[in-house]
DNA sequence: TTTAATTCTTGAAAAAGTCAATGGTTTATT
DNA sequence: AATAAACCATTGACTTTTTCAAGAATTAAA
């Protein structure tokens, strides 16, 4: 093959040096696109997506999340939580428990079946995350996790 | 006010310690949600969104992106690029130039007006990014940028 | 030359996001 | 205590985004 102006490899490098590629917002969006595609694939055999997995995870945790809590923490509209919990509840993975302290709220708690499925799902997302981070050392992964959590969990 | 079991502050801390909050995928999704909301607001006065800004940025750069390049680099379907470029082109900010080397492709290049708007828009996104990173030192921001770019720009 | 791939584009369908309104409940104000 | 204001889950309408498949034009491979 003769020189054709630009090979595929050098073009990729060109894009990596673009101004946009230096912007954090772009890098985060790109990482999220690749990451959620990969995670969705890993979760598919379990009948979960990133969204429903996130709800299930919090329902398994000891945080006793109300649906409002879920909406806030997952950056979703409260109306989006409804069908997510509906689906998990229909499948017997979580239950809505009216909060005794505030009967407006419903706390979403995992059933035993939900806990078991979560254990499997967590393995899948861990593998998926490891795949995404092969180019980083263990120390670098810890560093990235620390920096990201400080930014992502900052109280607005 | 009497102790009510859990204050709002301690509940937030509880969520921050949840298993989900340790997952990179989740942190990235959350950071992206907050970041793109903020950036969209910052770009609104200029008639841009994160998407159209990204296209404009690459059209201003010296990478001569085809629409396919834009789709790949921005993690979008090629059919999503069409209306984005349509809009920018209607506003006289970019032009579609048929690639002489491959007449199937169209290279998207910014006009002078596009370059000028981009200069303003870049200031807005820079401010937006700075707002999001107030809790990090300059060294930590550089570190985060480095780690993120190594992950987000890795050749799949 | 024929076949296969690729690029842009269109259009349809599914999924996700936004927003206002409602019934039931709690908090704040008077 | 009574009234008003605020809040939660849910519904429904609406817009935007995403995903796919197909087609015309062009290039690459056989």
Description:
- The structure is a homodimer of 156-residue chains.
- In chain A, 62% of the residues lie in helices and 6% in strands.
- With 156 residues, chain A is mainly alpha-helical.
- Chain A has a single domain, classed as Winged helix-like DNA-binding domain superfamily/Winged helix DNA-binding domain (Arc Repressor Mutant, subunit A).
- The first copy, chain A, is elongated, with a radius of gyration of 20 Å.
- Chain A starts with 7 loop residues before the first helix and ends with a helix.
- Chain A binds a DNA duplex (30 and 30 nucleotides) through residues 51, 66-68, 76-82, 96, 99, 102-106.
Mean pLDDT of chain A: 93
β-strand number of chain A: 2
Strand order of the largest sheet of chain A: 1-2
H and E string of chain A: HHHHHEEHH
State the separation between the terminal residues of chain A, measured CA to CA.
55 Å
What structural class do helix, strand and pairing data of chain A support?
A: mainly alpha
Query: What general form of chain A does the structure show?
Result: elongated
Largest inter-chain contact set: A-B, 63 and 63 residues
CATH classification, class level of chain A: Mainly Alpha
Summed up, the helix count of chain A is: 7
The proportion of residues forming helix of chain A, as a percent range, comes to 55-70%
Number of domains of chain A: 1
Strand percentage of chain A: 5-15%
Low-confidence stretches of chain A: 1-5
Radius of gyration of chain A: 20 Å
What keywords describe this structure?
homodimer; 156 residues; mainly alpha; Arc Repressor Mutant, subunit A; two-stranded antiparallel sheet; 7 helices; 62% helix; elongated; disordered N terminus; DNA-binding
């Amino acid at each position: 093959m003769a020189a054709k102006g630009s090979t595929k490899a050098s073009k990729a490098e060109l894009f990596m040096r673009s101004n946009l590629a230096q912007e954090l917002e772009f890098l985060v969006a790109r990482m999220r696109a690749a990451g959620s595609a990969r995670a969705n694939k890993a979760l598919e055999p379990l009948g979960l997506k990133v969204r429903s997995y996130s709800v299930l995870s919090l329902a398994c945790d000891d945080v006793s999340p109300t649906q409002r809590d879920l909406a806030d923490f997952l950056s979703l509209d409260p109306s989006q939580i409804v069908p997510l919990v509906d689906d998990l509840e229909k499948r017997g993975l979580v239950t809505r428990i009216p909060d005794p302290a505030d009967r407006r709220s419903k706390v979403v708690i995992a059933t035993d079946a939900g806990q078991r499925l979560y254990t499997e799902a967590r393995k899948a997302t861990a593998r998926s995350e490891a795949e995404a981070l092969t180019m980083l050392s263990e120390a670098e992964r810890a560093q990235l996790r620390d920096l990201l959590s400080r930014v992502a969990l900052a109280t607005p």
